[in-house]
Amino acid sequence: MIRKIFLVDAFVDGPFTGSPTGVIFLRNPLERSYMISLASELETQETLFVLLNNQSFGLRFFSQTQEIPLSVHACLAGAHLIYELGLFPVAKDLLFLTQEGQIVANTDQTGAVTLTAASQLLTKLDQVRLDQFRTLLNYQPGQVAWAALSPQKVIILALEKPELIKATEVNHYELTKTQAAGLAVTAQSLKPDSDYFLRCFLPLLGVNEEHVSGNIHRSLAPQWGRLLQKKRLVCRQMSQRGGLVSLELLSPAQISFTGRATTVFKGDLKLTDIPELA
Hints:
Layout: E1 3-10, E2 19-26, H1 32-42, E3 46-52, E4 57-62, E5 67-68, H2 72-84, E6 94-98, E7 101-107, E8 113-118, E9 123-124, H3 127-136, E10 144-149, E11 154-159, H4 163-167, H5 172-176, E12 182-188, E13 196-201, H6 217-228, E14 232-237, E15 243-251, E16 254-259, E17 261-269
Parallel strand pairs: 2-3, 4-6, 11-12, 13-14
Antiparallel strand pairs: 1-2, 1-17, 3-4, 4-5, 6-7, 7-8, 8-16, 9-10, 10-11, 12-13, 14-15, 15-16
């Protein structure tokens, strides 16, 4: 049986920006090995598999090399597509079930999608690890304002000057040897359309640099909110493609993400030797 496969750009800021995300809808669960193979075939940052239910949608996320617990930008891509295809009433909230808990999605008349998820806390990075990563990136001691560790074990370095974000060069091979899940560099934005900048590198997941990050904001946005004394924030991703993520700190335990997505194309998945698709 021929099935449809979609490519959706999530958290876009114009044409060909944001995170390209593969989206495949399933009627029945599919073996994990097949999902990894399909994600590798698509070669997008992440591929989203959506298991259709009556009242909720089960989501699983795969990089090109492995399954990951949660991808916020893939949630946004999935919600955009579900509403666009008329698979769920626009006036109702979507309930997504993931390995990291429930995500609630809704949309408005402009087509923007808002996701609500649990927020998380950062922990302070110890001096030994800070020195290790500062050396890896050739930063001077005064160039790092603060450093933290996300719950996903991503090292976060906040830089004193925003121009250091673009200038940062990462040796992905050396980064994999540090035993960190990834590295993020951030800085306060001096531009009127955003509050902070971000770049994120996850080579252990097969993602040398994220086009637009999502999950890390669950802990990073509350930190910037405290520093800037704001409940509403906008992050501009400084990757080659770039993108915008609007965030709101709803409570100490909840955060919302708002962004736009664009369906780039749909195609036919014609494989017949995958059990669920046959």
